[in-house]
Amino acid sequence: EYIQEAARAITLADGSRISAKELMERFLFPGELQWTPIARLSGGEKRRLFLLRILMEEPNVLLLDEPTNDLDLETMAVLESFIDDFRGAILFVSHDRFFVDRLADKVFVYQPDGSLRLYAGGYSYYKEKEREEEAEKAQLAPSAGEAKKDRETKKAQERPTREAKRRLSFGEQKEYAEIEGVIASKEGELKVVRLEMQQNASDYTRLAELGREETRLAAELDHLMERWAYLEEIAEQQDS
Fold first, then answer.
1. Given CA atoms 70, 73, 76, 82 in this order, what sign does their dihedral have?
2. What value does the mean pLDDT of the chain take?
3. Is the residue at 185 inside a domain?
């Protein structure tokens, strides 16, 4: 009944129609479970149900913020399958390279100057194009003349210690292996605080406390993201 409040059927990308009952089965709600009171569902089942309700409203755009952090593996598998049949546009942010490669037709990548660059492919395609461009730059470098060679040689001699440090230490390797989980946990804390802020909108004293907590968590999350980007860059250099 909750799902049918949105619609009794929707149209997929190939033009076919699928009923609410069929889509519920696709989202792991078999016939007998479809008549279970929502209050008796598990947390994962509720998230899957709320997601399904949104999809039944047939949006033409979906915005997904780190979906692999909040959805269990079963739900992610179902969602990925549904996205293949979704007839609208999807914009998502994710640190999951496999998720990006699986679903993205295009990726937007931040450049050193802060601008965004579009690559017509997934994460692997973007990295391949980046390597090709770096190789082209390396081939063009000798044509700049002997003066440039001398400058580059001098710079290389002046920073041997810096180059040697561009490898993850044992401690950094451990931090790199764990940091995505820490980021996901911090994002969860931030979402809980923001939900509490919505629930306490009329309690100004509590709202002020939550506002300070939100600021603290957001700053910690920003720091973690910067740290992740730093470690990721070094890890990629090691692998190249």
1. negative
2. 82
3. yes
**Which ranges in the chain belong to alpha helices (H)?**
20-26, 43-56, 67-70, 73-85, 97-103, 123-140, 146-158, 160-164, 170-199, 204-239
Out of 155, 178, 194, a domain closes at 155
16: left (phi over 0), alpha (psi -120 to 50) or beta: beta
CA–CA separation, 166 and 161 (whole Å):
9
Instruction: Check whether residue 171 and residue 232 sit in a common domain.
Output: yes
Tens digits of residue pLDDT in 135-193: 887 777 555 455 455 555 555 555 444 444 567 787 788 888 888 888 988 888 888 88
Provide the pLDDT for residue 162. Answer: 43
Q: How many Cβ atoms from other residues are within 10 Å of residue 51's Cβ?
A: 20
pLDDT of residue 163: 47
The whole-model pTM stands at: 0.49
Find out whether 231 and 179 touch, Cβ atoms under 8 Å.
yes
Q: Within the chain, which residues score under 50 in pLDDT?
A: 144, 147, 159-164
172 closest CA partner among 119, 228, 218 = 228
Domain boundary residue, one of 114, 133, 155: 155
**18 and 57 assigned to the same domain:** yes
114 and 66 housed in the same domain:
no
Domain limits at 197? 167-240
The pLDDT value given to residue 91: 92
| Residue entry with tokens 């001699």 | 157
The reply to whether 182 and 226 lie within a common domain is yes
238: domain CATH number is 1.10.287
